[in-house]
Design goal:
2 copies of one chain form a homodimer. Chain A is mainly beta and 105 residues long. Chain A has 1 helix and 7 strands, in the order E-E-H-E-E-E-E-E. A 4-stranded mixed beta sheet of chain A has the order 2-1-6-5, with helices on one face. A two-stranded antiparallel sheet of chain A has the order 3-4. Chains A and B meet through strand 1, strand 2, strand 5 and strand 7 of A and strand 1, strand 2, strand 5 and strand 7 of B. Strand 7 of chain A pairs antiparallel with strand 5 of chain B, so a sheet runs across the interface.
Chain lengths: 105, 105
């Protein structure tokens, strides 16, 4: 599976970030082609920030970089997993994962 | 965190489906409010099929239902995890997970 076979919707593809050592899901973000190419080239997770409308190297200010060891593609070619080693908390709240709350039902 | 606090974009929120016993990520899909409410009420994963533009009970034809034990919400309230026990392969290809291919780099 190559980058040009991926199904970018409005230029973006959702990316699940998963810690390789534990399989913990750390965050969900979005990548455009440029972010994906930079991730592949650098081995560090890059995304497209929808709120800031700009390319975003994860950890560029916090130092909490994500080293990407593998990228997985789903059956429909419209979702990715970055398998990572995290250099610090993934969440801007300081949590290891962004998914630290349960839905109350 | 309650359903009415979630940030549905165009009526949908992305849902990572993760196997509780292994932490394996099985698929990524989308839920609207109705799909989420049916998931909570039934304990079985429901989604909104974007390709078919209809509510979709996962496994309704294949029998490969997903029992949802917990639902996690991310820090921005715009992504969910269904923690599940899978009754069979999650992927329509017969694979346990939809993420069975690596991106070639």
């Amino acid at each position: 599976m190559k980058i040009n076979e991926l199904d970018f919707k409005n230029g973006l593809i959702p990316v699940i970030v998963q810690e390789e050592s534990s399989n913990m899901v750390l965050m969900l973000a979005y990548a455009g082609r440029e972010a994906l190419e930079l991730t592949v080239a650098s081995g560090l997770a890059h995304f497209w920030s929808r709120s800031r409308s700009r390319l975003w190297k994860k950890g560029e200010t916090s130092g909490n970089l994500l080293e990407v060891s593998r990228i997985l593609v789903d059956c429909d070619c419209d979702a990715l997993i970055y398998m990572v080693k995290a250099m610090g908390p993934a969440c801007h709240t300081g949590g290891k994962s962004c998914f630290f709350r349960a839905l109350e039902v």
